[in-house]
Amino acid sequence: MSGGAQYVVAAYAVIWFLVLAYVVMLGARTARVGRQVEAIMRMLDRREAQGDADAAPEKAEERA
Questions:
Q1: How far is CA 1 from CA 5, 11, 14, 20, 22, in A?
Q2: From CA 55, how far away is CA 53, in angstroms rounded?
């Protein structure tokens, strides 16, 4: 292989490595955001359940 061809192969290798690193980074970020969304949804579910439990005595008083 000539000297110029070796540089082209090296450039392609570097570009593929950078693309692979970028895809891995995006995957990690997406997974982290997914976990954060799940945690927020669980917190909202708990808050709604607490709100329903707290509102139940008030509703009973309104009926009486």
A1: 6, 15, 18, 26, 30
A2: 6
- Look up residue 64 and give its DSSP letter: -
Query: pLDDT tens digits, residue range 37-57?
Result: 999 999 999 999 988 777 666
What's the predicted TM-score (pTM) here?
0.62
Other beta carbons within 10 Å of 34: 10
Q: Which residue has the tokens 């009973």?
A: 60
Q: 3-class SS at 1? A: coil
Distance CA 63, CA 41 (A): 32
Looking at residue 42, its amino acid is R
- Secondary structure (3-state) at 2: coil
